[in-house]
Amino acid sequence: MDLARSQSGFSLGFNSHDTSPGPIPLQLLNGEKENDDDDDQNEQLSFLGHQLCLKRKRDGQRSSCPPNSPNRAAVQVGLDSRQATVRGWGNQALAVADPEVYEMMEKENERQFKGIELIASENFVCRAVMEALGNRLTNKYSEGYPGARCYTGNQFIDQIESLCCNRALAAFGLDSDKWGVNVQPYSCSSANFAVYTGLLLPGDRIMGLDSPSGGHLSHGYYIPGGKKVSASSIFFESLSYRVDPLTGCIDYDKMEEKAVDFRPKILICGGSSYPREWDYARFRKVADKIAAVLMCDMAHISGLVAAKESANPFDYYDIVTSTTHKSLRGPRGGIIFYRKGPKSRPPDMLPSLSDGNGHYDFEERINFAIHPLLQGGPHNNHIAALAIALKQLASPDYKTNMKQVKRNAQALAAALLRRRCRLVTGGTENHLLVWDITSLGLTGKNFEKVCEMCHITLNKSTVFGDNGAICRGGVRIASC
Ligand SMILES: Cc1ncc(COP(=O)(O)O)c(C=O)c1O
Fold it and tell me: A GO term (biological process) for this protein (predicted)?
């Protein structure tokens, strides 16, 4: 192709030696050529055997076009109007650019400010996190990982992502020789799915806490009729363990029995509305017995874990995932921690999940699952915002806040118990509680609606009735 002779008159000034009469200058101004004399003033450069034409600087430099020529004036007018247009949309405040969206956002601001927000999975991010979310980092494409991206121009993005990873490890006191982290997941559901995708084959088995017991859909849940409501249950075979309907606490003996029969390749702990500590050591024992990979989804409690206000899953688990926007108080997203280096446990893990040399091989599999298997370019603004949130985890203020969050939940639980309200598991050891309102003849759906009318935001939750059947008579309340 002869780039120098395009029909449009557009040229990169890229010429082949012998045939071309000379480079045609780059035309940006409505196809008008400034002046034929320009050619004489183009600097020539040779690159890979081709002549490159460098265009003269535009302003304040030599011009062969007389200042008062009509041609030049017309060009200037066109340029000015285009620049004004770009400045117009480029610099407009949101309220001017899109009053409709602005107004809706203002109303949401007001709702959050005036109401009482008690949704367990939400939090309030700080100003610095919001600043990081709304800026030019959103413009950049960075598929890949620091030092190995698909596009150039990522030198600062690399620094931000590496800093974020280092801070994530530091926030949970992890040794970088033994743990790695991926901060790119767009959400925790995608983080969980990436773990399964990276470590398993379609149809392999996973086992997590039943959703009506307080587990999360992304741990393989399907509803009792068999309808699969999560990709994790469509692409992998799953069987859930449950809480004891009477106590509301996980029935660990039954969990072990089911796990031994079902033999999942990944055993998952963690949930969305479980108000008690998890017996991590017991999970480890069961996982070792069936040679399963042990994964903890600490989405709700990761902030408490970082502040040492909850037991530490990292002592027992092979893989730990989390949301970054719940108790962690960061931007919306997910995170995956995985063990790396030599295995610290007896080599009874599935052979297919190790590199055959007694080393964990999660790093390559999980990173590859996130990109390129499941995601495209990372959301760099979110990663920067996460780095900021993770820095705050180390501050004494954050620890104080997490302590208070727990105290608030306990105070609310105590107040409800004094009024003879029934709480699932009889109380709470973290930031949330589940109030069983069936004995009051109420449903969670109606209760949450009435609360919403009173500007109190909480959410309905399933609970087990006295007969062990699932019913919708619960509400989840939290103090984050
Ligand atoms: C335990 C648990 N895992 C995963 C998720 C999913 O998080 P995301 O909304 O980021 O996909 C949640 C969200 O509520 C959760 O509670």
Answer: tetrahydrofolate interconversion
Q: How many CB atoms lie within 10 A of CB 56?
A: 14
Distance CA 159, CA 150 (A): 16
How many A from CA of 82 to the centre of ligand 1? 46
Could you tell me the strand order of the sheet in which 470-478 lies?
Answer: 422-423, 432-436, 470-478, 459-464
Q: Which atom of ligand 1 is nearest to the CA of 215?
A: 1
Q: Is 240 in the pocket of ligand 1 (CB under 6 A)?
A: no
Closest to 383 in 3D by CA, of 155, 147, 167, 184? 184
pTM of the model as a whole: 0.84
d(CA 94, ligand 1 centre) in Å: 30
In order of 72, 91, 284, 289, the CA distances from 77 in angstroms are 9, 21, 73, 78
Task: Tell me if 227 sits within 8 A of 255, measured CB to CB.
Answer: no
User: Is residue 188 within 6 Å of ligand 1 at its C-beta?
Assistant: yes
Is ligand 1 within 6 A of the CB of residue 382? no
- Write the DSSP assignment of 308-375 as a string of letters: TSS--GGGT-SEEEEESSSTT-SSS-EEEEEE-SB-SS-S-S-GGGB-SSSBB-HHHHHHHIIIIII-
Separation of CA 17 and ligand 1 centre (Å): 61
| Phi then psi dihedrals of residue 319, to 5 deg | -135, 135
Helix (H, G, I), strand (E, B) or coil at 477: strand
How far apart CA 382 and CA 66 sit, in angstroms, is 51
Q: Which residue has the tokens 């080599």?
A: 347
Instruction: Clarify whether 297 is annotated catalytic.
Output: yes
Q: How far apart are the first and last CA of the chain?
A: 62
Q: Residue 354: what pLDDT?
A: 62
What distance in Å separates the CA atoms of residue 430 and residue 304, rounded to the nearest whole number? Answer: 8
Distance 70 CA to ligand 1 centre (A): 64
Q: In the structure encoding, which two tokens stand for residue 460, read together?
A: 């309905």
Give the containing element (helix H, strand E) for 438.
none
Which helix (H) or strand (E) element contains residue 141? none
Query: DSSP E strands: which ranges in 195-342?
Result: 205-207, 237-238, 266-269, 293-297, 319-323, 334-339
Would you call 43 a catalytic residue per the annotation? Answer: no
Instruction: Give per-residue pLDDT as tens, 23-73.
Output: 444 444 444 444 444 444 555 656 556 666 555 555 545 555 566 777 778
pLDDT tens for each residue of 149-170: 999 999 999 999 999 999 999 9
Q: Which helix (H) or strand (E) holds 173?
A: none
Pocket test for ligand 1, best of 300, 323, 431, 476 (most atoms within 8 A of CB): 323
